[in-house]
Amino acid sequence: MKLVGLHASADGLGGWTYASPGKPRDTRLHNEQEASLVIVNGTLYMINRDAQAEINTRQQFIQQSVQLEVCTARSSRRWPNWR
Question: What is the rounded CA–CA span in Å between residue 37 and residue 50?
Fold first, then answer.
């Protein structure tokens, strides 16, 4: 077995980590999986960004509508007979 290094443990005593000999990892498969995860992450980021932009637009519309409603109500109380 190959000695890799120290590690921490829950009891605070730590210990040594050993790597067992075996087949080397298939780095090509690992790289392909990593690339696919990067693509999925980017896609989800873009979808989330578009959804957030739509939500922000709706929120701004609602806030402006409420402000307009408040201003209209105030002006109608100030000048009730004005048309």
Answer: 20
Identify which of 2, 50, 48 has the alpha carbon closest to the alpha carbon of residue 22: 2
* pLDDT per position as a tens digit, 26-82: 677 788 889 999 999 999 999 999 999 999 999 999 999 999 888 888 777 776 666
HSE of 9, CA atoms in CB hemisphere, 13 A: 9
Residue ranges covered by each domain of the chain: 28-83
Distance CA 33, CA 25 (A): 13
Q: Is the pTM of this model over 0.70?
A: no
- Which tokens is 83 given? 């048309």
Token digits for 18?
């050993």
